[in-house]
Design goal:
There is one protein chain. By secondary structure, the chain is an alpha/beta fold. It has one domain (2-246): 3-Layer(aba) Sandwich (Rossmann fold). It contains 7 helices and 10 strands. A 7-stranded parallel beta sheet has the order 1-10-9-6-2-3-5, with helices on both faces. It has a 3-stranded antiparallel beta sheet with strand order 4-8-7. Strand 2, helix 2 (45-51) and strand 3 (62-66) form a beta-alpha-beta unit. The longest helix has 23 residues, at 9-31. The relative contact order is 0.19. The model has no long low-confidence stretch (mean pLDDT 96).
Length: 249
C-alpha cells in the first residue's frame, strides 16, 4: 500500500489523475483497451476534472463500469450518480463504452446484466474513495466481505445518509434513499490496480481507521490494506491523524 499526501485537493487531484492516466494508457498499449471502475461523490471532483483533461488518452478504447447508485432516484436528481458520471466523466471525456447502474429499474435485472458484462475480463484500474463511516462504495458497516456476487443491493446506514446531506446532495435526511446498488467488496478487490482518492478533514478519522486499524467489516475500506497494488491519495487535511510512518511520500 502506497500512501501519498499533498498540500491541497487541487494538487492531489492532478497527481492522482496523472497516475490514473498512465495506467489507462498502459492498459491500452498492452491489451488494446482499458477497463475501469469510476467512483462518484464530492471527493472525486478534483480527480475527475484533472483526469478528463489529461492528454493522449484514447477514450474510445476505454470501457467504464459504475461503482454504485441509489435505488429509486431519478437520473435528473442532483444526487444521481448516473447524472454525475455523465456530466463529470462520460461527456467530458467522450466515453462511448460505459455501463451505468439504473436505480429506477428492477435492481436484480440491473445487477444481472451489468454484473455479467463486468466479469467478461479483468478490470485494469478502479477509482474509489472512502466514506466518513469507512464505507467502500456503498458497502456500509458491517460490510459483506464474503459474497462473490459482483453487485448487490445494500441498506444505507444513517451515517452514510447523513454524509450525503452534509455534502449538499440532499436537503434533509428523509430525502436520502435507504437502499442502493453497490459493487461488492470482493469485486472491487479483483481490479488489477486501485487508486483511492480521499480529501477533506471530515474523512480523517475514517482514513486512520482504514489504513492503520485492523481489517474488519466494521471498517469496510480497511480491506484495501490487503490489495497488492493500491495507491491512496490524501490531502493534508484527510491525512492529519495518520502516523507519519504510514505516509510514503
Amino acid at each position: 500500500m502506497i500512501v501519498k499526501v499533498y498540500p491541497g485537493k487541487a494538487i492531489m487531484g492532478r497527481q492522482s489523475a496523472a497516475q490514473a492516466a498512465a495506467s489507462i494508457r498502459q492498459a491500452i498499449d498492452a491489451k488494446g483497451q482499458a477497463r475501469i471502475i469510476a467512483a462518484t461523490g464530492a471527493s472525486q471532483f478534483e480527480f475527475l476534472d484533472a483526469l478528463t483533461g489529461m492528454p493522449d488518452i484514447d477514450w474510445q478504447l476505454v470501457e467504464m463500469f459504475h461503482l454504485d447508485e441509489y435505488i429509486g432516484l431519478s437520473i435528473n436528481h442532483p444526487a444521481s450518480f448516473r447524472k454525475y458520471l455523465l456530466e463529470r466523466l462520460i461527456q467530458k471525456a467522450g466515453l462511448k463504452n460505459y455501463h451505468l447502474l439504473d436505480g429506477e429499474k428492477n435492481p436484480e435485472e440491473v445487477i444481472r446484466r451489468i454484473g455479467q458484462a463486468l466479469c467478461v475480463a479483468p478490470i485494469d484500474v478502479a477509482f474509489v474513495g472512502i466514506g466518513e463511516n469507512g464505507h467502500l462504495a456503498f458497502n456500509d458497516p458491517p460490510a459483506d466481505f464474503e459474497t462473490a456476487e459482483p453487485y448487490l443491493v445494500v441498506e444505507l446506514d444513517e451515517d452514510c445518509r447523513r454524509q450525503q446531506v452534509g455534502e449538499g446532495w440532499f436537503s434533509a435526511l428523509s430525502e436520502v434513499p435507504r437502499k442502493a446498488i453497490s459493487m461488492s467488496v470482493r469485486q472491487i478487490l479483483k481490479a488489477e490496480e486501485i487508486l483511492c482518492v480521499v480529501p477533506d478533514a471530515r474523512k480523517a478519522h475514517a482514513v486512520r481507521m482504514c489504513l492503520e486499524g485492523e481489517v474488519s467489516p466494521l471498517v469496510p475500506a480497511s480491506i484495501l490494506q490487503t490489495h497488492p497494488n493500491i495507491t491512496i491519495y490524501l490531502d493534508t487535511a484527510s491525512a492529519a491523524l495518520l502516523d507519519p510512518e504510514t505516509v510514503n511520500s
